[in-house]
Amino acid sequence: MLDHLIKEKKAGVAIVGLGYVGLPTAIAIAEAGFEVVGVDVNEQRVKQLNNGRSFIAEIPNEAIKNISKKFSATTKWSEIKKCRVVIIAVPTPLTKNKTPDTSFIENATRNIAPHLSPESLVILESTTYPGTTEELVKSLLPKCYLAFAPERIDPGNKNFKFREVPKVVGGIDQKSTELACLFYSNLINKVVPVQNARTAEMTKLLENIFRLVNISMVNELKLLADRMDIDFWEVIEAAKTKPLGFYPFYPGPGVGGHCFEENQRVIVDNGLELQSLTVKEIYRNTVTKTIRSLSQVFNQNSTTITKAKPRLNLACPQTPLKVALPENQKILLVSSRDTDRVINIFCHYNYQLRLTDKHPVFVFDQPTNQIKLKFADNIVAGDFLVMPKKIPNEKQSLIFDLIDIVRKGYPNLLHKLRIKPCHGNLSKFKFLKKDYRKGNYLPLIDFLKIEEKLRLKRADLLLGGGRGPSANYIPAVITIDQDWARLIGYYLSEGCLTDDKKTLRLRWTFHSKEHEYINDLERILKNKGVRFSSYQDKQWQSFHIKVSSRTLGLFFRDVLRTGTNCYEMRIPRSLFFSTPKIRQEILSGILRGDGGVYMPPKKHRYFKNDRYYIRQNNAVEISYFTSSTTLFEQVQIILHENGVIPYIEKRVGLITIRGQENAKKLINFFDGEKRRLIAYYLSLIKKKNDFHLTKEVDDYLFIKVKEVKGCYAPQVVYSLEVDKTNTLLTTGGILVHNCIPLDPFYLSWKARELGFFARFIELAGEINELMPHHIVTKIIGALNRKRKSLNGSKILVLGVAYKKDIDDPRESPALEIIKILMHKKAIVIYNDPHIPQIVLDGEKIYSSPLTPDLLKRVDCVAITTDHSAYDYKLISRKAKLIVDTRNAIKERRDNIIK
Length: 898
Known about the structure:
alpha+beta, eight-stranded mixed β-sheet, seven-stranded antiparallel β-sheet, 26 helices, 46 strands, 23% strand
């Protein structure tokens, strides 16, 4: 029955996804005489198509208008019930490393399932891994005929029409293959049936990987040719003259690894709070939740480090990348029982990494002054691992409106809480009840009703509750300044929070001799208008400060999410990503509370070679302990930001800090006796110690590897891949690379599930991944030769499309180049005649008109996409400096770097 409908072109056809593949396919099917329904979630796109307008530059409006009688677009899945053939052409969005995300395929399949007639034909065209049709789609559509027919549309390529490109088709059974071939024979001149869907899926990946590997090869040869002072573009042109056995691929601006041992810790962020979790905990507890790696905020790779002035900072992004799961992007997390060698990398200061042998790790290469990637089993004693210093500062407010917070989150408290002015009184408001004017307060619920009439600024109000001696008011608007930050630090080290049902109580407990810290905390509370009580326990030599306030307790517990006891404590996420000064004040409060300063006896007696010796000591040891694993990691990261690498002791949660340079950096974090001890130690120093176990260059710290050991014990290991930055921040703040292989690398991932290591694919991905950084290095070198620094230079990027003469920026290496340039403080402008705006890290950037004046004003022009619309003669004449990544300008000039 279905084959008859297809022959007669009476089978309605639905196209799910009207993008660069779906829309041209829909046009071809409608032109062949079928009734076509296009389904897309983008309402604006659907409206545009139904009005006869194309959103793809290379498809004219006339093409849409010509099929208007046969084609309609909709956002309603129910329209599919009219159709017996459904083509799924949704995107499999790729990370920077081109790992497909099959959630779009799964969502599309689930949405069409209720509306399909029995024995409909469903064809998947989206690029994916072998097995998707049989394993994923079939499980959701068990009664349908299913086939895979990979799209072969090449945007921007006008040499081949839709009908002229042969179509590969493979079904899950013989009948599915026959029906799919019958359908496509109406559209395509040549249909190529293959044995099954897996074969068709592998065919598509072979085509992609063939291109990937060859481009990677020429990219690597281009890097080598540069060092040998050879024009590689000329080499390609010469090789092209061979009439057989050679196909030209061209270098361009620009997709690996293994797994973590289950107890390896990773810093993660769920958008509300930061956590230090083992990868096993992530897999078991949070794999289905919204999660992103904290190290996504670090954008590292193989990058030159220089000490030249003005220095070229290896800056981290200023805002963490936003990842909303599962709608947009994923962190891919997979567990498997693996017998690969597990490598234990032991560093000085007791830092340690545990991962499988082929996991990529960042190392600092001293001879070249570069950060490079090494497989774990190639790490040797003497290598330096990488720890970023710079913590991103999110553009977020540190002002908390408690009235708003209560109104939205705690409506049951509106009638219990009151407001009162910080200064003056409410007696002037004659319309208020006499009791309110006399008591100088107003119930919060009443205040919200007449707030506009009162015209009182919330910042000038206090918020609280209780009566008589138990009444306690705090600022209605809290602005986190240095005092608040230090108070929170004191709480994280010496505090706790309890709920006695009537109110919430915050307590701080100090040693009774720590007068400076006690006085500091009491001063802060008084200045903030917070009532407190205090008492001294003579038996235990402790001094307690207590605040009874449900409002302040809710602020600490639920808004800041500080934790309530020593095992839960964490620096609030908003404060951790605020400013260096706020972080320093928090650390100051933490170290004053839980930090210790110890000076050994001046004379040390020891026995050696059968006799006793006496040595004069001059040392100081700063220690810190916490029972919270998250706070432990956060403190280390902030210490790194301040140039301090602590020693991780065997006792879990304990670090010690030694050395005169570290003492100088930390003395201002302390007060009282602890500060006096450090100052006394520094006053006795006569010569500077020279250690070689750590290094500090610009925004990075490097720690020396002490020993590397491997074992073959079979165990469960976990692969964790992070989108965009491909980096993870592990125990102690050590930076490592993604786990899973890259590019059309679901195939590589699938191969690994079968115990096969796809070396070519992974190697190709590593090479391509370096290209944007290589281009930036070229720009830096070209500017330096002109006696200019990248910092503050104006860079014009020409072309952000991933391919010539199209309007699609997806996975374009130009976007990565722009990000790197911006992170290095360059002023970046872009132009693309096909793409009027791009979005980077949530911010819109608009294309600037390409004028002779603009070319003259910028310090460097980077050609990243060689659109035909560009006047390259004008560009070469007007621009001061050009870095041409596409060989777009054929002439040779002194201002052009190929």
